[in-house]
Each structure stands twice: as C-alpha cells, then as structure tokens.
C-alpha cells in the first residue's frame, strides 16, 4: 500500500510538472506574440524624415518612372486640347498616320521636366509641409494646400523650358524634330524668353495643381485611415487617396492646362498670343467658356494614373529608405 501511495504521488507530481511547463510555455508564447505585435509600432515611431535634397531626389525618381507609362496619355490630352478631335479619333489618327512610337514623342523632354518640375513639387512637399508646421495628420488642410502651392510654383519655374519643348514635340504630327534643332530654332527666333513662354499661367497651374494634388492626397489619407483602420503606409491607403487627388486635380486644373497648352504650342517663329490674359480672352471669344474644360476626360485619364503611380512610387521609395510616409 505504501508503495502504491509513493507511485501515485510520483505520477501526481509528474502530471503537475507537465501542466506547469505547458502553462509556462503558453505564457511565454503569449508574451512573444504581444511583443511582435508592438514591434512595428515602435519601429514606425523611430522612422526618420528625409532631408529636402533626398526627398526631392526620390520625388524625381518616382516621377521619371511614372512618365514612362503616362506619356502617351499626356500626348493624347495635349492633342485633344489643340484640336477639335475627340480622344478616340486622336488615338486613331496618331496610330494610322504616325505609328505607335508617336505616342512617345517628346519623352526625352518629359524626362527632364519630371526630373526638375515634378521632383520639386512632389519630392519637396513633405519637407516643406513639415517646415511650416503642417506635418501632423490633424494639421489644418489649408496649410497642406499652402505647402503644395509653394513647391508647385518653384518647380514650374525650373521645368518651364522642358514643358515648352515637350508640348511642341507632342503636337508635331510630322517627322520627329531632332532635339538640338528644336532648341536651336527656339533660341534663334525668340531667345531665352522663348523657353519661358507661358510661364505665368504655368506657375498658376502648378500652384493649383499641386495644392489640390498633395493637399487632397494628404487630407484623404487621414480620412481613409480613420474610416478603414489601414495605416498611412498601407498601399491601399495611398491608392485610394491618390485616385481621389487625380479627380479633384482635373476639376481645378483643366482651364489653366488649356491656356498653358495654347501658349506653349505657339510656333517657334512667331507669337500668336500676347500673354496669359490675351490667350484666355481669345480662347473664350472664339470657342466659348466651356472650351477651357475641353478634353476633361483626356486630362482625367492622364491625371488619375499619373497621380496614383507617382504617389505609390514615392511612398515605396520612402519605405525602402526607412523614411516616414507622406
């Protein structure tokens, strides 16, 4: 009997020991899981902000990547604005008369434009926004719009010469003009001023465009996060916010874009319009006020994917370099 009692106690102790070990294991597992769940939050808080130069470089990289996909849409939009043709007819005529490569006419100038204008207005936005005290998610929306307007204005001045040359290349329906010849003809006929034709409306366009694009994008990210629970770095947040930004950009920018295209599309050897106001008056008189929104869907078909690809790309680059999202 004593022997059986001893054996029973040993079995009881063994079972108790196993249960204790199991409980310890689960406590350890629970602690490990909770620690792993908290780790990303701590890492996110420790992410640094890019410098102005670094952010501008990343913005230019994202823009140059995106233009490879959006340049054909930009060419169609530009040709629709300067003609009476619709989107389908413009695409059909371009393909039939010039071939598929014509959709990339002017792309070298587009690369230079994105590497200057868009690099500043896209890449410099976050550092400038933070510098004026609008970096917090709950910062006033007009401060975010101001940051976009500032970077857009500066960028448009830097990229205006490439914008002019890109527009002339895109609207040329004949054989492609060599880059050197286009620059030489412009300089010979109009001097340095020729490269800055339309700069007034281009600055205004850039102010409205970038204020709308980056302001709506920044504010929309906060709304999406609050509504869905996604993080600001989540690609779904960036996609939804950038798509909304593309639509509102089209609504606000279309009139400025039309006047800018008319000014920049003037022949290199003469001036058709005597400045922005003259161009606006002549356009409205000859074609009506609604002509300022001509090509609305062509513009939207360009702005929506352009904004989406650019913003997704720069968010990806920010994340890859260990920086906080916009």
Mean pLDDT: 86
Helix content: over 70%
β-strand percent reads: under 5%
| Rg | 28 Å
Structural notes for this entry:
The protein has 326 residues and is mainly alpha-helical. Helices cover 77% and strands 0% of the residues. It contains eleven helices and no strands. Helix 8 runs antiparallel to helix 9 and helix 9 packs across helix 11. The radius of gyration is 28 Å and the shape is globular.
Summarize the structure.
With 326 residues, this protein is mainly alpha-helical.
List the helices and strands and how they pair.
Blueprint: H1 2-46, H2 52-82, H3 87-98, H4 107-123, H5 125-131, H6 141-171, H7 179-190, H8 199-228, H9 235-264, H10 276-287, H11 296-320
Helix pairs in contact: 2-4, 2-11, 4-6, 5-6, 6-8, 8-9, 9-10, 9-11
List descriptors.
326 residues; mainly alpha; 11 helices; 77% helix; globular; disordered N terminus
């Amino acid at each position: 009997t004593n022997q059986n009692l001893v054996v029973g106690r040993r079995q009881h102790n063994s079972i108790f020991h196993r249960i204790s070990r199991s409980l310890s294991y689960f406590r350890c597992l629970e602690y490990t899981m909770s620690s792993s769940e908290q780790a990303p939050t701590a890492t996110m808080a420790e992410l640094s902000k890019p410098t102005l130069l670094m952010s501008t470089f990343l913005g230019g990289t994202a823009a140059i990547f995106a233009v490879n996909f959006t340049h054909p849409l930009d060419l169609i939009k530009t040709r629709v604005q300067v003609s009476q043709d619709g989107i389908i007819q413009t695409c059909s005529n371009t393909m039939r008369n010039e071939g598929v490569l014509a959709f990339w006419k002017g792309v070298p100038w587009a690369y230079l434009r994105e590497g200057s204008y868009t690099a500043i207005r896209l890449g410099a936005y976050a550092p400038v926004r933070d510098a004026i005290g609008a970096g917090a998610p709950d910062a006033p929306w007009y401060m975010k719009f101001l940051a976009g307007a500032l970077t857009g204005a500066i960028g448009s001045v830097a990229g205006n010469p490439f914008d002019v040359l890109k527009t002339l290349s895109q609207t040329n329906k004949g054989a492609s003009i060599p880059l050197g010849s286009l620059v030489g003809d412009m300089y010979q006929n109009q001097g340095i001023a020729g490269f800055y034709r339309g700069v007034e409306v281009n600055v205004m366009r850039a102010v409205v465009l970038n204020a709308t694009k980056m302001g709506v994008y920044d504010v929309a990210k906060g709304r999406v996060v609050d509504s869905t629970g996604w993080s600001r770095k989540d690609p779904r947040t960036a996609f939804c916010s950038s798509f909304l930004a593309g639509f509102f950009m089209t609504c606000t920018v279309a009139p400025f874009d039309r006047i800018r295209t008319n000014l920049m599309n003037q022949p290199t050897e003469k001036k058709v319009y005597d400045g922005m106001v003259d161009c606006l008056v002549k356009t409205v008189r000859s074609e009506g006020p609604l002509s300022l929104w001509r090509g609305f869907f062509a513009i939207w078909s360009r702005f929506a994917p352009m904004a989406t690809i650019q913003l997704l790309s720069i968010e990806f680059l920010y994340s890859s370099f260990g920086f906080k999202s916009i």
